[in-house]
Amino acid sequence: MDYILEVNNLRKEFKNFTLDNISFKLEPGYIMGFIGPNGAGKSTTIKLIMNLLKKDGGEVRIFGKDHEKYEKEVKNRIGFVYDENYYYEDLSIRAMKSIVASFYSDWDDDKFNQYLRDFDLNPKAKIKTLSKGMKMKFSLAVALSHNADLIIMDEPTSGLDPVFRREVLDILYNVIEDERKSIFFSTHITTDLEKIADYITFINKGKIVFSKPKDEVLESYAIVRGGLDILNDSTRKEFIGIRETKVGFEALTDNIEKTRKTFGDKVLIERANLEDIMVYSVRG
Amino acid sequence: MIGIIKRDILLILSSKQTILLMLFYIPFLMILAESFHPESFYFVIIVLYTFLMSMSSFTYDISGKSKYIMNSLPINRKELVVYKYLSIFVYLGMTIVFAGVYLWIIHILGLANVDYFSLRVIKNTIPIVMMYSAVVFPVYIRFEPRIGQILSLFVFILFFTTIGNLSYTRDKAILKFLSLMKWEYYMAIALLLYLLSLLLSISLYKEKDI
Q: Which residue of B has its CA nearest to A56?
């Protein structure tokens, strides 16, 4: 199968943190959500994919090509949106666009202008005068105006209000209607991913916990609720993470059948959401 | 290359600080170096303005968050470094035009006796600009931007005081030695340094974490 993004055994060592053996694959036409708590290694992974950081080991292939050897060719087909505005604050939208556009072989001015109108962005406005939401819209307009086949986004919705977040998600959903395009989207706002993601890759402490289709993830985990009387050292080990209160417990399991057999009708088993999975997996 | 030059020019024009520096640096130097020979003064202006322009844009690429944007665009690291080294000649050209017009106005208004165009001086600035870039660029790439700035300032002061001292010197041995050193020799040394520095910068930047 041809993958649009393929990361194999990626490794990067820092003084106090190691990104260890990261592997996942993304097919054309899908959205992959990249989740994990702060400091888990999401931004580091994205910087490694974009060749902003040099890897210590492993392989990154984009559109089937090595991302370093074919850097220019590969980046020509990537649209990127980072968590902060990294564009030159003193420049106007129009000036910044003219710089960025000169690097891409397939820049589409009509499309960019259409996005500016849709997003209500004034091309004469200086970037430093834009709100966080407007800056994000500008980044999105740039990322979507050169016919990129892979959109890489690092926490694009963090710090945005729910109305604007929904707007961003709708735009991404429209992008993905073209079955050749894919989106790789890191976030810790997991509710965004439940709406649009096809695949979820979960990273914690520099290691991949899982990388699976979203539906498979949501089906394989469950939230278990019950009374404290059934908890002991042995039953506690059945759960990935557990939260105890005075009236009972709530826990996460990835073995629903075994939990059902062990506890029968003494517990209530409910569908887990991505936030439950992330929180209990991280906290234990 | 065009994208990088376009960006640098737009950044210079959009920064009030840089524009003010460009406008007031020449009068400042006129006060500071009033005893200079008109040709030496022209020489200092050309070299310093070329430094200023190339270093201000270089700092954007090495420090600050905007470096992520530049390095995420479809351009590889080798090209980025090569363009950076080549761009000093573009800045030299821009400086010649800017300083020429500025000094010509000063000359016409009779404010000072300044040389506003000398091919001989321009020819002499080329190896200096190349040698300066050859020393400073790899330091900026390898070390923290602050160390690069300190070294840049050090080379800048060294250059300025050397030119100043040469204007005053009566030491015949030095003057004879300098007059014997043909431009071609300076240029050959500068070219060698420039190319070695370029190769070093490429290999350093290829392995750098942005």
A: B207
